[in-house]
Hints:
Chain A has helices spanning 32-43, 55-67, 86-97, 113-118, 120-148, 169-189, 219-231, 243-252, 255-258; strands spanning 23-27, 47-52, 72-77, 102-105, 152-156, 195-201, 236-239. By secondary structure, chain A is an alpha/beta fold. Chain A has a 7-stranded parallel β-sheet, sandwiched between helices.
Amino acid sequence: MSTLAPAPAGVAAVSPNAKVTKKILVLGATSGIAEATCRIWAAQGAQLFLVARNADKLAAVAADLKLRGAAYVGTAVADLDDTDKHPELLAHAINSLTGMDVAYLAHGLLGDQARAEQDFDHAAQIIFTNFMAPVSLLTWLANYCVQRHAGVLAVLSSVAGERGRKSNYVYGASKAGLTAFLGGLRNRVDREGVTVLTIKPGPVATPMTAHMNIKKADVNQVAQTIVNAIDAKKDNVYVPAMFQPIMFVIRNIPERIFKKLNL
Amino acid sequence: MTAEPEALTSPAPAISEPPSGPPQFESWGRYPKYGAKVVPLNWQGDFPAVLAGSHESALPVGLGRSYGDVCLLKDGTLLQTTGMSRLIDFNPETGVLTAEAGISLAQILDFAVPRGFFLPVTPGTKYVTLGGAIANDIHGKNHEAVGSFGNHVPCFELVRSDGTRRLCSPTENPDWFAATIGGMGLTGVITWAQLRLRPIVSRALDCEHIQFHGIDEFLELKQRYQNVEYTVSWVDCVSTGKNFARGIFMMGEHSKTPGELKPSPEPKLVFPIDAPAFALNRTTVNMFNTVFFHKQMKPHVKAPQDYEPFFYPLDKVLHWNRLYGRRGLVQFQYAIPWEHAKEGTIAILREVAKSGLASFLAVLKAFGDVPSLGMMSFPQAGIMFALDFPIKPGITFPLMQRLGDMTLEYGGRLYPAKDAAMTPVQFQTFYPEWQRFARFRDPLLTSSFWERVTGEKSTL
């Protein structure tokens, strides 16, 4: 970043803050959590390539991140349900960035549980967007990273994938599938020097949850936790952290009791 | 537990289904309390689309830092703009920043200070939005030097509920520009605005604090230091006799010695609980006042100070309003023209001291004669005085009524952004332009304040 003072003579000119040159591909960049995360990276002087579906929103986010200090901001408008286009899209993004240190998958569809219970097409849509599309992206990205023996694949799953609940089990099932996929992928690529980070947010105050009248986490704190987890090359992170013990309890309630609960 | 992350493919937020038990949106004074639906505006294109199919009146709001009901709408929809917080453009040559209107002044400072710029005008908290600062035409400690916030806004976009979008500036749609500055959010939604920042070379201000006794000494100090950019005074309004209207005259100038321009750290302290109703009484406030007055050992102190404690001493403790307990607080803030400023201020101070109600925060300053650009702007040349009162049934509101009438008698006016008590007669006398302004109001938008002081209901 331009604000870094030049190193005095006799001192190595390498900044201890070497992450400032990070090259990050963001899929679903106009989502609330993704945008908050990108603001932190932009302030660090990162190079970003943003993919989102809505051109106006994407342009607004890109202009903001550029002003906040991102060294480079590239964009592509794409519907990530269109898996046939993934290889071309990803190759273009990485070309534009001239490399990739982190891929951040933040797109998803909460859907409407009540509708999904009656309408298989809607259920299939939720599962496609949250599971099939990330599998397509991650298959390509993992192979790219394995070739280079480097890279972080940071993926937004959800606490909803930890156990099926009647209030959102279709969404939860799609995220459970994604979490299992990420676990297996990590088991495969860890020995190749590639990090797979499974991010499990609880309710966060963003447009996606605006209609829910519940206590929600602050999106900026969630974003900072995600940035830190990526820097630390963690395997799993709950955001906020209090969901780790909460989900431990939820997972361990005996089924004969759990099935009677209203969750 | 319901929950989750984020949607690229999720539908636009809809308001067809009201949430069960609406989340409470409180103004800073926490009085009055009304249930209202809160719908976020996250993108410049969200309004009016987000209201499609709704027949309720609405009101754009930001961070809820105004004190009374100017940011509330009973049984209506509050359109919270804080998600519209993106930067759009910055010109380091001119210092003109273009940003979405939901960005907070705190976020603007985080961006501007490391680049050597500062807000042209700032209130006593940085947790207000750009749109809110325009809609209330807020003022700062440098009002005498530079006027109010609207004087530093070259242009903005105003979107009406019929979908019309207008670029407003002193030359383009000047009547809409004048109606919207200080227009209390009633003329439409401000989607983005420009703000002319000022250069700084350091975070620090060169500050001086001087003790005074009585309004005459205050006026003398104001005269002597009229070339100092930032001035404000704290006043003890509990003491009588020889300590009547004692206070501290505080002033500052941006330091001309280059210093580090790092961003501010996040505040760590949060006032955790509602204080009991008796926490702020005459005795505790009197003790505080005596300590505060004598905190500076000498009558005249000079020292450099970071901009955070100089401008935002109370921002260090988030939710300090909880100090006033669940019942909340009301603020009384007037501007009385010079002609009657001194006699009016002394009379009002005596009335307050006589009432026995203790005001914890009392701020006195002079307004300058830079004219505000808004039709409904509060600042006018003269003395500005602001007091906080805890809400005591049967005492606070009768006092507010008396003080409001005295303000009216001395030719002054009260500040809608701080008000929960002015009467329709008071409002309509303070703001003779209100009927002309009413013609610019968006038919869908209203506030509990507007309905209270005009009797106008939303025309839907």
